[in-house]
Description:
By secondary structure, the chain is α+β, with helices and mostly antiparallel strands. 26% of the residues lie in helices and 45% in strands.
Amino acid sequence: MTEETIRAAGCVLWRRSPIDxxxxxxxxxxxxxxxxxxxxxxxxxxxxxxxxxxREVAEETGYTAVPGAPLPTVHYLANGRPKQVHYWTAEATDxxxxxxxxxxxxxxxPPAAARHRLTQPRDRDLIDALLSSLxxx
Length: 137
């Protein structure tokens, strides 16, 4: 990793539906990019990636979460700079969403619908990794 690499972290946030107990995945809509993604963001200087991932979940979704298994790290270019995003599974435990500067909407969707709604194809593999992780638990 070079000094120019953007370091970020996030979670594939999940819960059991309050209606039928089915698995739901939280996606966030960022109006700046008009995209649907998993909650994530840049790490603060010296911040531990898992700490940053949980901070971003709370900031973007309003939910506290219990972290689970690490998921694959995603690498891509953002505005010509390499970006590295560490991900974890995280179960939403408490909270509620309120629109904020970065995120104007959230959706809780079944895995297949979440996979379809995600803007970036690279984010879809994280849903498969979450499902594999939950099936092993």
